[in-house]
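Hey, can you fold this?
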Amino acid sequence: MTLLSSDGPSPDNPRLTVRGTVAELMLNAPSKKNALPLAAWQALPTRLVALREDKDVRVCVVRGAGGKSFCAGADISEFEAIRSTPEAAKRYDDINVAAFKALKSLPVPVIAAIEGPCLGGGLGLALACDLRVAAQSAFFAIPAARLGLAYPPEALGDLLEAVSPSEAKKLLFTADRLSAHQALAIGLINEVVPDDKLDERIDTLTATLCANAPLSLKAAKQAINQLAATGTDGKFAELRRDAERCIDSEDYREGCRAFLEKRQPRFNGL
């Protein structure tokens, strides 16, 4: 096994390893259900640089450490300190979006192996992958509306590649939690397997992809990503202003306080 790491404040989160032709990106905060701190989001694009130059790697698997969680999103306990103003929130969102883009733009196929919670930014990471295989016990949600914040508009393009606009709105409006089978039914994921068969299915799928022509897979990925692009680059500034208004609201502060105090938020639209 080769360990690929880079300079940074948290060299083990995320952790990148390579076994032969298969790379594995491990989201490594199991005590927090792999909710990622800002340092991990910042480190992720750098971790992936080596894969862009490694001609032997044919596929990358993304999974959560500990065998119980994929990723519960961002570490919300940090928000009051590092995401308290529109400017700080924009920087945080920029870092999140850079992580999503770094994963999505890898030249090789990327598979998310999902178990347990796959929430918020964690779902954003899964949607940046090309394929999503979930254990039966996995569950999914985008809880932005319960925190009083807006999901990064750039990340919504990945969501809309997987589900219809109507289903995307339902996920965002309700913040409802979906089971693996519900997620499969709307196209959010590609497959559901029994919990004890997830590793076996990932091994089989990676073997299939590794046996196929790498240039063909690369060409297909690039073409599909380009064709599926939303084409809203010119509107992102306007969309970002709407998101920034959320961060500058009392509702956002109330949402974070309620989450940390483990109670229902009381929003007033201000």
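Oh, and this one too while you're at it.
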Amino acid sequence: MTAYAAVVLAGGAARRMGGRDKPAVPVHGLSMRDRVLAAVADATPRVLVGPGGSLPVDVLVTREEPAGGGPVAATAAGLALLHPGTTVVALFAADLPLLTRPAVGVLLDALAAGSGPEAPDGVCLLDDRGRRQPLCGVWRVPSLHAALARVATRRSGAAGSVGAAGIAELLGTAGAAGNADLSGNADLPGNADLPGNADLPGNAELPGNAELPGNAELPGTAGGAGGVRGTGRAGGGGGAEALAGASMRELLGELTVRELVWSAAGPPPWFDCDTDSDIRRAEEWTR
């Protein structure tokens, strides 16, 4: 079985549903957010980007910077909490009440089947109109890191090229580029002035240290119902903030994406709920 992480994006404005917490809306007795989290129950870790609420204790919670900054900023915040060395991430919107573990398995198998120079960077489903659904797919983490760095570099006007290994410095995501050893990490934006920085493990009492993105792995930083809460923000500004408002089309524009048409029996896992009418339709499918 393919080992994978999961990032679930739950921070949308839901304007067509009166601005309410759309992922918390129940479909046949269970919230859409909980349905999506259940479909990736075997992922390690599971990260929710958006309002937390009552969640399983193993789910990590974070917010994009700024809150409401869109799916690309939310993707960056979610990736910041992945364990170093994670190679595959399932990326889903939190309003997919028909998503199931078998559907996730189809996507993972399709990604694993690719090898060599022609291997895709990600696999996602197409909806019934033939439109790509990037928030119903699985992706190679290094490819997403590189794509995020490119988008942030273009949007921030930073000089030079920022590769995948530089994403931690640009976005302040300590876990993003294998940066597991935070000790001595004086190059993290805003991190140079932390006294005793070489002894970061156990250093939770340092002023501002709780805000270090990716700091969930440090002893003493986990806590609270709903798992670890991170910020996903760049300490010096300009990196993560540059991703606000960016589109998934822009993020994935230079990646190789395999698109799948859902042909299995049952309701389509890509079906997202943007209106009350969509909720009623999903209710009918889940009866």
